[in-house]
Amino acid sequence: MINNKHIINNLAFNNDKKQCLYKMKTIDKSKKGSIDALIKPLLELINSKKDFYTTSSCSGRIIVVALPQNKRKYNTKWLFVSHEEVAVKDIIKHLEAIKSVKDTVYLRFEPIILHIAATSVEKAVELINLASSVGFKRGGIISANKKIIVELVGVDTLDVPIAKDKKLMISEDYLRFIIEEANNKLMRNKERIDLFYEKIKSKI
Amino acid sequence: MINNKHIINNLAFNNDKKQCLYKMKTIDKSKKGSIDALIKPLLELINSKKDFYTTSSCSGRIIVVALPQNKRKYNTKWLFVSHEEVAVKDIIKHLEAIKSVKDTVYLRFEPIILHIAATSVEKAVELINLASSVGFKRGGIISANKKIIVELVGVDTLDVPIAKDKKLMISEDYLRFIIEEANNKLMRNKERIDLFYEKIKSKI
To answer: Of B145, B153, B184, which is closest to A125 when you measure between CB atoms?
Structure first.
């Protein structure tokens, strides 16, 4: 027997999905909010499945960022962002800005992060298990009130303090070493994205 | 109306809780598996609440670890672990081991991680929201098949490559700097644990 609550929930999910995908398309046409190319096929695949749609995403990025001690997000100062491999000279020219920053400055690699709406807790768990099987470290249902939202986060991270009190704390040699590490993590993160794509294609 | 499924679920939850807490107590008596003192009051508070019990935990730690490129956990080589503040000399004496390690070696701060069983998805989400309000970055339901398990992870991290190919890549000055950073993160992580304790006490 098909129950009424189930039908209403399904209608609401499909309506939300339509609105969310329309918004994404509109934003994607503007320069500012464009979805990074690397992750687009994965998002399109997820959005083609009837039980899921993506609400936000980042494919992974190399960043240089100044963080105040209390780490409130609104105080964060961004010095550099790249979703692709970087060269040492790209970073070096942005390090000039450090001379005006008192807070601790970090070079980071942040892995893929996805927020995905699901039709049910069971479907959400299925997706979490799939992500876990390709080596995503963190995955969980972060909201289950009005909508069921899954957060998936990659495993490849780097989090290196490089400056403090307007002073660079590392040598150029060491900078070269950590940029190589960051580029390696970017590559491994990409491999995991490809693997996740294949898993979803064959299993969901 | 109290429904039968609800009663059976509740009985199963209470039974699992009893078994899990008994196991924890037994392990805690041995030296090897002892729960870190810092987190004990928080675990006891959570376990005193009827809708929750803890299944595993780490209060946060400063580690030195060698990671092979593919990052499979079983290949990881641990060189140093501390759940408390560390002195530079403590780390230095463990760095001798680097001379025999070809893989990249990291100095890391890993924040608090908790796994908690909950009686329902609603109760799990309540706990996740509370954790989020004290600044825990990641929180989600990671399993909802037989048991509902919540994972909560702190926000304070550090992930610094310090050696590769049997060679230390950083100066003693920089080591001093990152150990200071690691100790600061440990302290902020502890502040968040205290805050979370107070929130649970007053809100759940």
So the answer is: B145
Say how many CB pairs under 8 Å bridge A and B: 88
User: How does residue A6 score in pLDDT terms, banded at 50, 70 and 90?
Assistant: confident
For A61-74, give one letter per residue: b (16+ CB within 10 A) or e: bbbbbbbeeebeee
What domains are there in chain B, each with its CATH number?
4-203 (3.30.1960.10)
Kindly write down the DSSP assignment for every residue of B125-182, as one continuous string. HHHHHHHHHTT--EEEEEE-SSSEEEEEE-S--EEEEEEETTEE-S-HHHHHHHHHHH
Are the beta carbons of B121 and A128 separated by less than 8 Å? no
Closest Cα in chain A to B105: A181
- Among left, alpha and beta (phi > 0; psi -120 to 50; other), residue B4 is alpha
Which of B63, B108, B127, B141 to substitute to test the interface with A, most A CBs within 10 Å?
B141
pTM over 0.95: no
CA distances B166 to B82, B95, B99, Å, are 23, 10, 4
Q: Give alpha helix (H) positions in A65-166.
A: 88-95, 121-133
Interface test with B, best of A169, A176, A188 (most B CBs within 10 A): A169
The alpha carbon of residue B124 is apart from the nearest alpha carbon of chain A, in Å, by: 9
Complex confidence, ipTM:
0.85
pLDDT in tens, A64-85: 999 886 655 557 888 999 999 9
pLDDT tens per residue, range B93-144: 888 888 888 889 999 999 999 999 999 999 999 999 999 999 888 789 999 8
pLDDT digits (tens, 9 = 90+) for B45-77: 999 999 999 999 999 999 999 988 665 555 788
Question: Is there a contact between B144 and A121 if contact means CB atoms under 8 Å apart?
Answer: yes
Residues of B in contact with A188 (CB under 8 A): 71
